[in-house]
UniProtKB/TrEMBL annotation:
Name of the protein: Lysosomal membrane ascorbate-dependent ferrireductase CYB561A3
Recorded GO CC terms: late endosome membrane; lysosomal membrane
Keywords associated with the record: Electron transport, Endosome, Glycoprotein, Heme, Iron, Lysosome, Membrane, Metal-binding, Oxidoreductase, Translocase, Transmembrane, Transmembrane helix, Transport
Subcellular location, record wording: Late endosome membrane; Lysosome membrane
Annotated organism of origin: Cephalopterus ornatus
Length: 243
């Protein structure tokens, strides 16, 4: 009985959890914007360091927060009844929006590197980030072909669905890892010659480290929500659900 009571206390409804998670995601976006505006000089499109500042903002917004929102579409109870196609379109549209922001974020960092003679793709962060984006693009294209186009057979959708779900969570965690490693890399490069060293934990370091922890927390909570059995969309054998 004690165990059942403990489980009942932890079984919170999805809507308040979703509201908390949405607030956390917006907080992450706001904090990365404050970091780039207050400590890194703001934003520009001139190819300088202020052009680079678009990179962390767009990556956190697209690759983490918007992608996390797309992953949780089918956990909303309203999606459990009625036609499934509109929710498929919403899921795919949010993922596509995340992909567009991610590509713009990559364009910003490549333009900054090329304008300043900085080599591209030499760090672990860059390898992990580009690999995540490539995997994301394959995931979106395969999901579009399997679940949105009308000619995909039912057996193919059933076969591919667990693979799609697995890589969805994997891409999100890779995105979080890429963002956190990118924050750390930026601090190592920025907080040196002429500034307070990173190891002395100036205010910018504390702020950016906190941002990284919040991004990690957001990713963990999204994956936890995806894994929670009571929040999963019930399977249905109706023709409408199979489409």
């Amino acid at each position: 009985r004690c165990h059942q009571r403990s489980v009942a206390m932890l079984d919170i409804p999805f809507p308040p959890f979703c509201a908390f998670l949405g607030s956390l995601g917006l907080l992450c976006v706001a904090l990365v914007g404050v970091w780039c505006q207050h400590w890194r000089g703001g934003f520009s499109l001139d190819g300088g360091s202020r052009t680079f500042n678009w990179h962390p903002v767009l990556m956190v917004t697209g690759l983490v927060v918007l992608y996390g929102a797309a992953a949780l579409v089918y956990r909303v109870p309203n999606t459990w009844s009625g036609p499934k196609l509109p929710w498929k379109v919403l899921h795919g549209g949010l993922a596509l929006g995340a992909f567009v922001l991610t590509v713009l974020g990559l364009a910003a960092v490549f333009r900054f590197h090329n304008s300043n003679g900085t080599p591209n793709m030499y760090s672990l962060h860059s390898w992990m980030g580009l690999g995540t984006v490539l995997l994301f693009s394959c995931q979106w294209a395969a999901g579009f072909g399997a679940f949105l186009l009308p000619w995909a057979p039912a057996w193919l959708r059933q076969l591919y669905k667990p693979i799609h779900v697995f890589f969805g969570s994997t891409i999100l965690m890779l995105s979080v890892a890429s963002c956190v490693s990118g924050i750390n890399e930026k601090l190592f490069f920025s907080l040196k010659n002429g500034t307070t060293q990173y190891k002395l934990l100036p205010a910018e370091a504390v702020f950016a480290n906190t941002l990284g922890i919040l991004i990690l927390l957001f990713g963990v909570l999204v994956v936890a929500a995806l894994a929670r059995p009571s929040w999963k969309r019930p399977d249905s054998d109706s023709p409408d659900s199979r489409q």
